[in-house]
Design a protein that fits this description.
- The chain has 3 helices and 11 strands; from the N terminus they run βαββββααββββββ.
- It is of the alpha/beta class.
- It has one domain.
- A 5-stranded mixed β-sheet has the order 2-1-3-5-4. A 4-stranded antiparallel β-sheet has the order 6-7-10-11, with no helix packed on it. The protein has a two-stranded antiparallel ribbon with strand order 8-9.
- The longest helix is centred in the N-terminal third of the chain and has 23 residues.
- The termini are far apart.
């Protein structure tokens, strides 16, 4: 472990503590055995059924209904100013989505970009280019691309190679091998981008023919509540 401790709290009456505990066991396996070898980031993921997170812990909180239109989960800050992932399990279940996939998605992206400030710059002209959000689950986030750990569905995730254009043949781009090239978006996936020349702020690029829907674990548009950590400023398709 590299010192990151994540406390999982269940604040949704629709899930028993046993259900959440089983999911957390799968999430710990995913982080330690699958994510860390690819990204070099590990963490101790622990469920606290009493609802009290120890001081110094990041948090992943299971909640009922989404408080932001179009979002099944997003990132915020704890009262200590540490990373916090919110998972709206009630909304997931209402729309026929897997809440454990959302939990996995938010956990891995919180580990990969805890301050929501990492980007990749792709130059497309002598004087400009596009910034892409360094998010590791958005491109392959649809439930159909998830996989099971001990019967618990978890999110697929991209490798660092997804953000690189110089890869060799047979490069692996995501854990489940659904993606075949850098920056590919699977159906149901998207990525945040910022065109530095256009001046339109953060936008969303979707897989061809797709648009924002509740099955997407979307980042929230900027300009919302002051306590929320936000990156994007619009929902314009690219």
């Amino acid at each position: 472990m590299n010192g990151i401790r994540i406390a999982v709290l269940n604040q949704f009456a629709g899930l028993t503590d046993d259900e959440v505990a089983a999911a957390v066991t799968a999430l710990q396996i995913q982080v330690h055995e699958h994510f860390e070898p690819a990204w070099g980031i590990d963490a101790e993921v622990t469920f606290y059924p009493d609802g009290q997170a120890p001081a110094g812990c990041w948090q992943l909180v299971i909640l009922n209904n989404s408080d932001q239109a179009g979002a099944l989960g997003y990132h915020d800050l704890t009262n200590e100013g540490l990373p916090l992932g919110k998972v709206f399990a009630g909304t997931d279940l209402a729309y026929g989505n897997s809440w454990t996939v959302t939990a996995s998605h938010e956990l891995l992206e919180m580990l990969g970009d805890p301050d929501i400030n990492l980007t990749v710059f792709i130059e497309n002209s002598a004087n400009g280019g596009i910034l892409y959000a360094y998010e590791n689950c958005d491109a392959c986030e649809d439930d159909r691309y998830s996989y099971a750990i001990n019967g618990v569905q978890v999110s697929d995730f991209v490798f660092p190679s997804w953000f690189q254009n110089f890869n060799l043949p047979n490069t692996q781009y995501d854990y489940c091998n659904h993606i075949t090239q850098a920056f590919e978006l699977l159906p149901g996936g998207y990525i945040g981008y910022y065109n530095v020349n256009a001046g339109g702020g953060w936008q969303q690029k979707y897989a061809t023919g797709q648009s924002l829907k509740y099955s997407m674990r979307a980042y929230i548009a900027a300009g919302g509540k002051g306590e929320e950590r936000q990156r994007s400023s619009g929902l314009k398709a690219m």
